[in-house]
Design a protein that fits this description.
globular; alpha/beta; disordered C terminus
Length: 295
């Protein structure tokens, strides 16, 4: 693991790393914010953030303004890149919504993507282990959050790895990739036409199969009503219906005038950091907003 750069930030330190990934088979980059509570030698809770299409490990740390709220909660923030890079797969950069920058946080089974596109194993196993051993992350107190494609990743990985992730939230997530163009393109390309494989990477389908509510502390989702992708790609109502079906508590907040970008995320990131902090630090969950839609 090589430290590329570090920067003082709100009393903590922002780090950017590169390492040779065994799961990916290529060098990968990730960013870590260590709050000032970390250097004391003890373990701190961790929040993974999964970014959306075309983003990198830099995007969230630079644009969201999350660090000062992470300091309040004593949270380590971890943001991986969104896909392998430098694989030289033919066509890997031909489209902005598939290939480079669009790993969809799953392990591909279709050639030629299956060799390097192993983002689920990378995030949930390799990077998880790295930040909880080589860095002072507490493996028993880890949450996951994401935006758009990364929101899909957060909702799916949290359900597929409940032993890893204790809390989950999302901004404008792709909640039912089997039903939307972005998801159908990615799932076909990475997993083939096997519908059962698609269902294992579809947050709504996974939730509908739950025997009991998987997250007793609830799930938080924020969605802008001026989001240009809301009705065709994101489909939050489908996920809300699945949560209601199994009795999973969901706080789905719908915001007038907010779109799909980082102005939206920066506006509500404090609530998400505090939501995860309350769960991971064992605090009683406080009301986030009197305008919440709770299902």
């Amino acid at each position: 693991m090589k430290l590329i750069s570090q920067h003082g930030c709100h009393g903590g330190v922002q780090h950017f790393y590169r390492h040779d990934s065994e799961e990916i088979g290529l060098p990968m980059r990730f960013s870590v914010f260590l709050p000032p509570q970390a250097p004391g030698g003890g373990k701190v809770p961790v929040l993974f953030y999964l970014a959306g299409l075309t983003c990198t490990e830099d995007t969230f740390m630079i644009k969201a303004g999350a660090q000062r709220f992470a300091v309040e909660q004593g949270l380590m923030l971890v943001a991986p890149d969104t896909s392998p890079r430098g694989a030289d797969v033919p066509g890997e950069a031909d489209a902005w919504d598939f290939g480079v920058g669009a790993g969809f946080y799953l392990d591909a089974t279709e050639a030629p993507w299956s060799r390097h596109w192993r983002m689920e194993s990378y995030v949930a196993d390799e990077l998880f282990n790295l930040v909880t051993t080589a860095l002072p992350g507490d493996a028993d107190r880890v949450g996951i959050c994401g935006h758009s494609m990364g929101g899909h990743g957060a909702l799916v990985l949290a359900q597929r790895h409940p032993e890893r992730f204790r809390s989950v939230s999302a901004f404008a997530p792709i909640t039912a990739p089997s039903l939307c163009p972005w998801g159908q393109k990615a799932l076909t390309g990475y997993l083939g036409v096997n519908g059962s494989a698609w269902a294992e990477h579809d947050a709504t389908a996974l939730m509908r199969k739950q025997i009991r509510p998987p997250f007793p502390d609830g799930i938080l989702i924020d969605q802008g009503l001026s989001d240009q992708y809301l009705h065709e790609q994101l489909l939050p109502d489908a996920f809300a219906e699945a949560c209601a079906h199994v009795g999973q508590s969901l706080t789905l907040r719908l915001h007038e005038d907010y779109d799909h970008g980082y102005f939206f995320i920066a506006s509500f990131i404090a609530d998400h950091i505090r939501f995860h902090g309350n769960v991971l630090n064992g605090s009683s969950l406080k009301s986030i907003s009197t305008q919440d839609l709770v299902l």
